Amino acid sequence: MTAHRGLTLASSVIGAVLVALDGTVLAVAQPALRLDLHASLTQVQWTSTAYLIAVASLLVFAGRLGDRYGHRRVFALGMVGFGAASAGIGVAPGIGWVIGLRILQGLFGALLQPATLGMLRAAYPPERLAMPIALRTSAIGVAAAAGPLVGGALVTPFGWRSVFFLNVVPALVMGVLAAVVREPEPAAPATRPSLDLPGASLLAAALVCLVYGLTAVADSGRPTVPAVALLGAVAIGCLFVRHERRARSPLLPADVLGRPAAGSALGLLVVVSATMMGTLFVSSYVLQDVLGLDPLRTALWALPAPVAMVLGAPVTAVLMRRYGPRCTAGMATPFLALGVLVLSRLGQGFSELWAGVGFLLVGAGFGTVMVTATAVVVQEVPVTSAGVAGGLQQTALNVGPTVGVAAAGTLMTFTEVTSGPTLAVLACVCLLGAPLALRLPTQRTPAREELATASGSSG
Fold it and tell me: What is the pTM of this model?
């Protein structure tokens, strides 16, 4: 059983790292891609936007597929497809092909991301989940730190296509291993969960409108476009809620939505990820356009943030075990806000030491909350809904950063491109997460199915 858990943990970590690394190295490769394919700036931006829309719209439905057919099968399909799409992008003859294949890559990315958490939930008892989730978060931090460096090291000698070939071998190897290695799985439920295709379609449409509207806020000079998209998201979202209330087998079952702690954890993830990415967006602008640093030096200035995530994630698992999720997240959220306030002083004359302190606080605070809230989401729901829970967690971590960057870009426009007021507002937004953190459980609350199992065995 230990060997099987080790393979499950390795699959979860590598899957999460590939997705995180893909996004960070692409940012470095985009200027070279634009020159090589003679693409416009808008077309290059769509290589990121199209992927984000595809991923965000399907994460919850992909999690439900894992609940129904098995997380390992869905993970295997997602990894193999992700690797194949990456290879296709590496040989794409034009920007249209790149954008189309990025959509396909996003679809397979949506399959594998919830499965990385669903597999952990199925393999580990709830009381032992915190450390595997912490190790997964540490690995994501390593990918975030290494991405710009790896991207620069590959793009300079080998060109932009090399960053996509980087994914191919590990994705195919882990996908094939997941498909052929048989591992013990929890007993299947008496009835398989319904896919709820109408609900999945409505949720996907609402998320497409939401993500497109938010990205258009930052990228489009026409306010009508994001306004129409966001209004569409609200309208379709209302239809989705109405459908879910009436559906016999809803996409979001009561054993997920009926748990206040899970809802608070998801809201907290949206708030802190919006704060984190909005802060990094503004800080990168200041470091490069105001202080005149090149991308490599910018990455080095910000390096304390991912380092704090990497080193702090295992510590968070220990803190959760000793003090519980509420205290752990409740203390970490103000640390994140304090780091943002320190970085609000970025500018001429601001020392590299204080910048390092700010980024360190931001990384430590965000990493701690991310591990804690993710553990609560995954632990609070029964194993039969672990995929949906993982999909919701990943959706929160996709929507949150999009909201943060859109809000930061809009605020910088209204404040005449000064970073201080924008980051001060983001720090206040972060503190809105404190009441959500205080709604987390003091200790882990077992899912109903586990309580029932324990009662049955004692009887």
Answer: 0.84
